[in-house]
Amino acid sequence: MSIPVVDFRSYSLGEKDVRADQLQELSGELKQAFTEIGFVFLQNSGITPEEVNKVMEIDKKFFLQPEGLKHPFSRQSFPKSPNHGWVSLETEKLNPKRPGDLKESFNTSSFHPDIKWPSADFLEIHRSFFQRCKELSLRVLRVMALSLGLDPDVFIRAHALIGTDENKTTLRSLYYPPVKTAKENQLRCGEHSDYGSITLVFQGSDGLQVCARSGEFIAAPAVSGAVLVNIADLMQRWTADRFISVCHRVLLPPEGDSCTRQSLAFFVHPDDEALISCCDGSSKYPPITAGDYVTQRFNETYEQAEG
Ligand SMILES: O=C(O)CCC(=O)C(=O)O
Ligand SMILES: [Fe+2]
């Protein structure tokens, strides 16, 4: 069992004249991936390795600074966007049964003028990559709706405010430093599923593993030029469990291997006020606004991390 690779060329960013039969073909491929595995690699999405490298490079410089220089940009320093900003090593436990994750991250959740940025370049590079990820996500959401025989705009309509403070979509840059010592059962990133609608992941190197239906973890390798897309929990609920949100993790490198790792995850969320009800008309899950749903999930993660 491995994660399927789909060629997204016909609907890649910048492609204006996609044909109905090409969309149909893509929707069949995404449907199979999202109902069976919950993850898919998209080749030829339009987002290039050069764009990804540019973000990773400037972020690495940020992460490698002394702690004192990163503190002014800490998560929770920005009242209107509490998720925005830098998160230090071992602060999060994505699996609450394990010690804190051996990763640092920088969340880009808001472009509000009050937010302080490490530099003007840092802001511009993040703003432009965020925008590209947003455009690709909307294309993927469209194909997903088509694949379920729904109004093609049904998911997109609930994602009208990505990039504003009324929507929790976040670009998260992750840096996994060399592992010198680790606590018992500690991982780079504990087992978890994502909270929102879909996630785009760009990996600088291997390390991610995804739980297959058999219960076994399978590798989600860094496929050159591809973006990994996965279903998150709110989308599983929205589709009344047609699309599956599956558990994934990042293990420690083998002992003595001092490699670092970088990745970029674009966590897509519907607008805070969007009411999410099962798209098949069933009442398998009660309607909930995306804002309430994600706030609940964040509180769980960070309460446990602090406890
Ligand atoms: O580092 C990665 O490749 C993925 C991390 C992840 O799954 C997450 O932050 O939700
Ligand atoms: Fe994740």
TrEMBL record:
Organism encoding this protein: Nothobranchius furzeri
Assigned protein family: Belongs to the iron/ascorbate-dependent oxidoreductase family.
Keyword Signal: no
Protein name: Si:dkey-10o6.2
One Gene Ontology molecular-function label: oxidoreductase activity
InterPro entries: DIOX_N, IPNS-like_FE2OG_OXY, IPNS-like_sf, Iron_ascorbate_oxido_reductase, Oxoglu/Fe-dep_dioxygenase_dom
Record keywords, A-Z: Iron, Metal-binding, Oxidoreductase
SUPFAM superfamilies, A to Z: Clavaminate synthase-like (SSF51197)
Signal peptide start-end: none
Fe2OG dioxygenase domain sequence ranges: 167-270
Gene3D superfamilies to which the protein is assigned, alphabetical: B-lactam Antibiotic, Isopenicillin N Synthase, Chain (2.60.120.330)
